[in-house]
């Protein structure tokens, strides 16, 4: 199977899409208003510096007591554009990636003909990255140029412990290895600590986050990178296109970044619905990977992807993830009525098998 993401609604007839992991509460009303207002400015070029959006992000970081200024921030047309700009700036010959994980890192490395070494996470250890710490450190030698980490990881939903993140950052700094910390799903995790508070301490650290998932705006394409290393940041910036963030995306982002109550409400809702889904999937006899994010990885011998697609429900077939095999699937946590409908359809698949 080719390395494709979820959301293939263009080649399938889909009524319920559980394959993409966006906020089940939908786009905030304030963001919808900002988008409508921004449409009237589409006859203008966007601000190439994204000054308003950077200022808003820096203000929100200050509220969270992160030592991040406007100059530490780069904006991108989604996190994927930033990953590509990073590898073109650094030109890494060798990357280490825990697996399974987001295929976008591999896609970016292929653009610069880089070698990839995978540190395989074990299902017997719950795909927990903390259990592979020693193996991961052993792979991070001076021959490695860059480490890609997702926290929480995709597709497992696992968070790394703060102690182990610190240890990896210290080790990579000693070995001269760049670290890309992908935190695109961290806002769904109420108790998670962002690596944003360490960007001034580690000059080799780049933290990437996105508006796509938490604010349910994947069609707008908006992400950001924070790096305290001026020289590195400028190299990455030179590998981004001019005017890469549209007028609409900038206005939507500046409004979304202030939606604190919406994020808190999302975290509570996702936590309840995730627990409900995990319990139900376990009752079905599936092997469920306990998650901290807004999605769940599980295993079943049923050909569930094909069975549910016949019912016009799309889930993520994870057999094309490095380190996973046929039978692994991922579902997003959606609204309660949608989650119940999915479980009802899965029950029918089991009965008719």
UniProtKB/TrEMBL annotation:
Pfam families in alphabetical order: Aminotran_1_2
Cofactors, names only: pyridoxal 5'-phosphate
Gene Ontology MF: a single term: transaminase activity
Keyword Mitochondrion assigned: no
All residue ranges annotated as the Aminotransferase class I/classII large domain in the record: 15-345
Protein keywords: Aminotransferase, Pyridoxal phosphate, Transferase
Keyword Transmembrane helix found: no
PANTHER family assigned to the protein according to its UniProt record, in alphabetical order: HISTIDINOL-PHOSPHATE AMINOTRANSFERASE-RELATED (PTHR42885), THREONINE-PHOSPHATE DECARBOXYLASE (PTHR42885:SF1)
Entry protein name: Aminotransferase class I/II-fold pyridoxal phosphate-dependent enzyme
Protein species of origin: Hominifimenecus microfluidus
């Amino acid at each position: 199977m080719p390395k494709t993401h979820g959301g293939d609604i263009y080649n399938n007839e889909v009524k319920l899409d559980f394959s993409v992991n966006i906020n089940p509460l939908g786009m905030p009303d304030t963001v919808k208003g900002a988008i409508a207002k921004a449409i009237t400015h589409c006859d203008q070029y966007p601000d190439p510096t994204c000054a308003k959006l950077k200022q808003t992000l820096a203000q929100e970081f200050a509220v969270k007591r992160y030592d991040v200024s406007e100059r530490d921030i780069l904006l991108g047309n989604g996190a994927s554009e930033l990953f590509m700009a990073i590898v073109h700036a650094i030109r890494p010959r060798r990357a280490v990636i825990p697996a399974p994980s987001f295929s976008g890192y591999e896609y970016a490395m292929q653009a610069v003909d880089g070698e990839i070494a995978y540190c395989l996470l074990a299902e017997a250890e719950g795909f927990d990255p903390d259990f592979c710490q020693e193996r991961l450190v052993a792979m991070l030698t001076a021959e490695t140029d860059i480490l890609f980490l997702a926290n929480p990881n995709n597709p497992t939903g696992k968070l790394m412990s703060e102690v182990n993140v610190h240890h990896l950052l210290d080790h990579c700094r000693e070995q001269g290895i760049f670290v890309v910390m992908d935190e695109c799903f961290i806002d769904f995790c109420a108790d998670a600590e962002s690596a944003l508070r360490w960007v001034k301490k580690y000059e080799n650290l780049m933290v990437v986050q996105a508006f796509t998932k938490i604010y349910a705006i994947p069609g707008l394409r908006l992400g950001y990178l924070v790096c305290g290393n001026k020289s590195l940041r400028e190299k990455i910036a030179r590998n981004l296109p001019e005017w890469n963030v549209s007028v609409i995306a900038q206005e939507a982002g500046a409004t979304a970044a202030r939606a604190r109550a919406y994020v808190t409400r999302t975290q509570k809702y996702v936590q309840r619905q995730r627990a409900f889904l995990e319990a139900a999937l376990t009752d079905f006899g599936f092997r469920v990977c306990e998650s901290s994010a807004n999605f769940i990885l599980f295993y079943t011998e049923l050909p569930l992807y094909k069975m549910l697609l016949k019912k016009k429900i799309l889930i993520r077939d994870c057999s094309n993830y490095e380190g996973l095999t046929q039978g692994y699937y991922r579902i997003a946590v959606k609204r309660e009525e949608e989650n119940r409908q999915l479980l009802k359809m899965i029950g029918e698949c089991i009965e008719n098998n």
